[in-house]
Amino acid sequence: MTSETLARYLRPGTLNLAALPPLSLYVHLPWCLKKCPYCDFNSHEQSGGVPEARYLDALRCDLEAALPFVWGRRIHSIFIGGGTPSLFSPQSIDRLLADIRARPLSRLPCGRRHAAVGRRAEL
After folding, report:
1. Which of 50, 46, 60 is closest to 97 using CA atoms?
2. Counting Cβ atoms within 10 Å, is residue 97 exposed (0-12), middle (13-18) or buried (19+)?
């Protein structure tokens, strides 16, 4: 994305809101034990191990790239869905939530660790 495009989206007067609305974050974990024939989601059968660390690194990069668009807005809830999110280890889900909390936009309470796997969690 060019700086001109970013400036166009962030120019004053684009939106007239009394306050910035909170955000809900969807995190897609696309691996399944088996691809269901009716599923249209971006999901893939697990063959070998799930590349958890590499995927979490990519998610962190995506979040960093999105920060200019959401600066100043709080994350209200996180939904972790996709294929079968429970294929990710508890340590990876913890790392994912820690990476989200570490970003300046997310002033999530660190004492509440309600990880949603396939359901919505109010944080």
Report:
1. 60
2. buried
One-letter amino acid at 99 equals D
Residue 61: which of 6, 99, 117 has the closest Cα?
99
| Residue pair 25/78 in contact by the 8 Å Cβ criterion | yes
Spatial distance between the Cα atoms of 77 and 106, rounded to a whole number of angstroms: 10
Please give the span between the terminal C-alpha atoms of the chain, in angstroms, as a whole number. Answer: 31
CA-derived radius of gyration, the chain: 16
**Residue 15: strand, helix, or coil:** coil
Whole-prediction pTM: 0.65
Per-residue model confidence as pLDDT tens digits over 8-39: 777 666 666 777 778 888 999 988 888 888 88
Q: Are 121 and 86 in contact (CB under 8 A)?
A: no
Task: With CA atoms as reference, report the closest residue to 29 among 60, 52, 57, 48.
Answer: 52
